[in-house]
Structures are given as C-alpha cells and as structure tokens.
Fold:
Amino acid sequence: MKTKFLATIALSVALLNPFFAQAEGKNGVAAVVNGEKITVAELREIYDHTPQIHTQDKWDTFYNKALDAWINSKIVQQAADKSNVRKSKEYKEQLIAAGNDIASKLYLRQELDKKINDNDVKNMYNQYKTNFVSEKEIRARHILVDSEASANDIITKIKKGENFDELARKYSKERKSDLGYFTKEMMVPEFGEAAFSMRKGDFSQKPIKTQYGYHIILIDDIRNTQPLSYEDAEPQLRGILAQEALKNVMSAMGQSAKVEKYSLDGKVVK
Structure:
C-alpha cells in the first residue's frame, strides 16, 4: 500500500510539474490518435503498478512495446465509439455482467482487508521463522549436451583452461547456464547426488547422465539456507491468510443466504 501511495504521489508530481512533463515523450504526450492524446503518465502508471513487468523489461523497453499496443487499442475504441455498439443489447448485457464481476471482487477484497491485519502477518512470519529448518544449498552452473562423447570433449577443454561460460554459450542445449541456488531435492536425483558430492570451485570430472542429457557441473557456492526476510515473505503470507479468510467469508455468506437448488427434472436438491 505504501509503495502504491508513493507511486501515486510521484505520478501527481510529474503531471503538475512542467519540467517532469517535458522529460518524456513530447511535453508528456506519448502519441496523438485522431486528436486524442495518450500520455506518458498513463503508460508509466501501468508500469509502476505492475511489479511483474519490472522483472521482464526496463521502463524504456516496456514503453516502446506498450505504446503501439495502446495506440491500436485507442484506434479500435474510437471506431467502436463511432458505431452503435454501445446501444446494442449485447453491449448492455456484457456491461452489466462486467459490473457485477467488478462489484463482487471489490466487495470480497474489502471483506478480506477487514479480516487480515499486520499483526496476523507478523505472527505468521514469526511462526515461520521459529519452524524454519536450515539445509544445505548450492549455486551451480552447468552445460547440457546430448551425448556422453560431447560432454567428455567439453570436460577436456575445461581442464585445458577454456572458459566455462563461453563453452556453455557454444555447446549447451540450455541458453541459461546459471542455475542459481538450489537444494538437493529440487533437482533430479542423479544431478542432485553429483552436485552435492562436490566442493566449491569443483567441476564434474565425468558427465552426469539424467533424463535431459549429459551435464557438466561447476559449483560456484555452498551455503546454508536462511529464512526469507519479512519484506520478501509478506506477500506470500498475506496470500495464505487471504485464502483462509476467503473460505470463512464464503462460508458465512452461504449460511446466511436462502438458496433453493433444483435438478434438471425440477426436483429440489437438498
């Protein structure tokens, strides 16, 4: 909530301050479609309020991708406005259906907000930390090829001093060689057994065969797992609490509602 509030303040400042308005686009305008403006602020608001986009694209990349889609959407919307589609029965029916859906979602969100507070989240986090069991995890890179012969050739190149990452880019079936941190159980058994028998800085002296092919593994780091910080764990914990709260809300509404169900042949279903 705090992040969204700050983003809203930043957006308001950008709209009110001529200096910021001219910093992007043409005086803050991203495009003009048949005389109707699309502002940079509109696109920026979507970007700022959609965290998952941040992991995929930087702002300027997203802007270039989104602008054409936004323009096309505006063109279609303007064409629809010129037609009689808003007067049609189908439009009115779908508008009512969409309105009902939005109202239901907003109502449930408001009810869940009443039932979940910061203390509940903190208590669940403390319980998570108390029950957390640390285990060994490894960070590794790998090269994956189809044949044992190819794997052995690559191992020979590594022994001669050739760069692991360059060999991965050249020969590996997978574009990403860095596997990040993982525990033994997260990998297929053959890979996990081999990786967790190695030491930091080691690379496999012989290919490791799995269902995916033949692997050459390089161990970058070995450490013990740590509990997530409160900031990282909070969204997941709120999600868990929300699921439980939703069950209770739906149960309470169901008990208070008067419902009669009928089978296809018109009989009452108890």
